[in-house]
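Case study 2.
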Amino acid sequence: MSVGAAVQAAEPIKIGSVLSVTGPAAFLGDPELKTLQLYIERINAQGGVLGRKLELTHYDDGSDANKANNFAKRLVDDDKVDILVGGTTTGSTMAMVPVVDKANVPFISLAGGVVIVEPVKKWVFKTPHTDRMAAEKVFEDMKKRGISKIALLAETSGFGQSGKKESASVASKYGITLVAYESYGPKDTDMSPQLTKIKNTADVQALFVFGLGQGPAIVTKNCKQLGIKLPQYQSHGVASEEYINLAGPAADGVRLPASALLVADKLAASDVQKPVVTAYANAYKDRYKQDVSAFGGHAYDGLMIAVNAIKHAGSTDKAKVRDAIEATKGYVGTGGMVNMSATDHMGLDLSAFRMLEVKNGVFVQ
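Prediction:
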């Protein structure tokens, strides 16, 4: 081995991340960071990847998308990362996209907005189900239950507004009409005025809330306080035990699309995801003494897809790693079966979502 090759072999593989570990999106970003730290430590204990240790450099954007662009530049220009895993939110991710595009660095986002992968961006991929898929899964369930006229309450964040747009675009496909629309800010602490308007709107048969973090739990509690009996649906932006903890008994009866991870212990033994989600759930709970969330699962999938791509590429050559990510086929993750292609940089279909309901303080399928 030449001296140059020996140095290359000894150098760590540098993984960069911008996560919302604090601020309104913290209950997404916190488990994402913990998951990356846990599994990078585990992989390194087993000898690393290609005989090299993984090194994580991460920055907290405080749930402020405006900070994400500068952090992405720092990761690329100063920290010289080989690949990025995370963006937590759609807003932060989209702020990072121009940086990775210009620098030709592979980027696997952990955010939900369909705008991240449509249109396809050469260097950008994502692990979570999209907001459009969430709307379709919810509307599919509503249709089965004879619900056709709904109120939509969406957060003013990138995720909420993309969710609003996608919900409106697919509603007619399922015979759904949006008869009321209201919005709230990510830092709002009382949504009673918006909910009172919805309550007083004729013909509303159900409420669909599109947001993430603490806001949706406040909405759920406000509904209870206002005596609103409408069936309530949430998006995958609350796919976490933390939502139930924040909303309390008011969450009972709420339905939402989520990954199999939230019902890992209730899956059939024959379910192809059971070994993966059970192993992740056990490892995370053992380490952090906390319940798992879909968001930590998205980070796990992002890291594993990145690691598999580096192994297949046989190096950290960015173009080769990008091509290997795009060629991901048959990866069974916490979010579902992933089959990417040149025209699909997410690789999940609607079957990857499970329709869950909160019953007696727990998620059930």
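The first strand starts at residue 13 and ends at 19.
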